[in-house]
Amino acid sequence: MSLRATEGERGNLLFDFDVLKLLRSFSAILQASLAMTTATQSLEGKIRWRGVNVRTDDDRFLQLAVAAAKEAGRIQMVRYGRKHEVQYKGEIDPVTDVDKLCERAVVGMISKAFPDHDILSEESFFEKKGSPWKWIIDPIDGTTNYIHEYPCFCVSVGLELEGRMQLGVVYNPLLDELFQAVKGMGTFFNGRKVTVSSRDKLDGSFLCTGFPYDVREHADFYLKYFKAFITRSFALRRPGSAVLDLCYVAAGRFDGFWEMRLHPWDVAAASLMVTEAGGTVTDFAGNPYSIYSDELLASNGFIHEEMIRVMRELGDGR
Question: Cα–Cα distance between 119 and 134 in angstroms, integer?
Fold first, then answer.
């Protein structure tokens, strides 16, 4: 039996070594940050983040989320355009070796910093620890786009406390776009505070949507929504990343979005972006939204009632 490592195995060993070095380095930085945070708490219990007052704990969590998201983005770009190992969770639901590498890096950084926190991530089994804190991670949102080198994918990291989203970070490494939101503090894009658009008529609105993985079995059902909105709006897009779609609603690029059968990791961070940017997120009937809901309707708020009326016209034959 040969003991010589193949080129691919050497690459994986080097990557694992790099991740270990990264975790050790980040752990040292985090410990220093925590010590500084404790000293700062004796003043007013607040620090400054990009000119906004943020609770000390939120800043500590936010620093970790940003660091983890950027590390996942780095991995995505290092391996972007290469041949990938692809498996399928469903007929058209792929997962790659890069999804797993990104997840390993993000989960490793969070577990090292907060070993008692729960972590819900797309590619791993959820092991409930009973913590009121839950990190919700999508290591690559837009995996199909990533495989085909279509430039629309990202990493999403959100933090929930007792069922309520507290912060979200989304990083699009290809365009170096960093979205972040802390509950009650607004939404920021690359350090600049952003708000939703001000368009107040559906007829002039720029919308986006996505199709669930069972679209082959229920194509006519999903297409009736697509037809209804494409004939009532200015334009409609289907980019392939629900996370970025919602972030772009928050930033005022899109005016509205809807989709069904999304998972918590698809919406945890990004739905907070919309509400913190002044937008509205509900189910199709206008009821309060939960990241565990089966349907999501998001908008700038001004066109929300019009979008709900379209949903009602289509009926409840779901």
Answer: 5
CA 297 – CA 170 distance, rounded (Å): 19
pLDDT tens-place string over residues 143-178: 999 999 999 999 999 999 999 999 999 999 999 999
Q: d(Cα 110, Cα 78) in Å, to the nearest integer? A: 22
Helix (H, G, I), strand (E, B), or coil: what is residue 34? helix
| Separation CA 145–CA 58 (nearest Å) | 32
Spatial distance between the Cα atoms of 145 and 147, rounded to a whole number of angstroms: 6
pLDDT per residue over 88-128, tens digit each? 876 767 889 999 999 999 999 999 999 999 999 987 768 88
What is the 8-class DSSP label of residue 43?
A: T
Could you report how far apart the first and last alpha carbons of the chain are, in Å? Answer: 58
**pLDDT tens sequence across 12-53:** 434 444 544 454 444 444 443 443 333 333 323 332 333 333
Continuous H helices in the chain: 7-41, 56-78, 97-113, 143-147, 219-230, 242-250, 264-276, 304-314
The secondary structure element, H or E, covering residue 149 is none
pTM, two decimal places = 0.82
In the Cβ-directed half-sphere of 300, how many Cα atoms lie within 13 Å?
23
Domains annotated on the chain, with CATH:
7-193 (3.30.540.10), 202-314 (3.40.190.80)
Return the H-helix or E-strand segment holding 116.
Answer: none
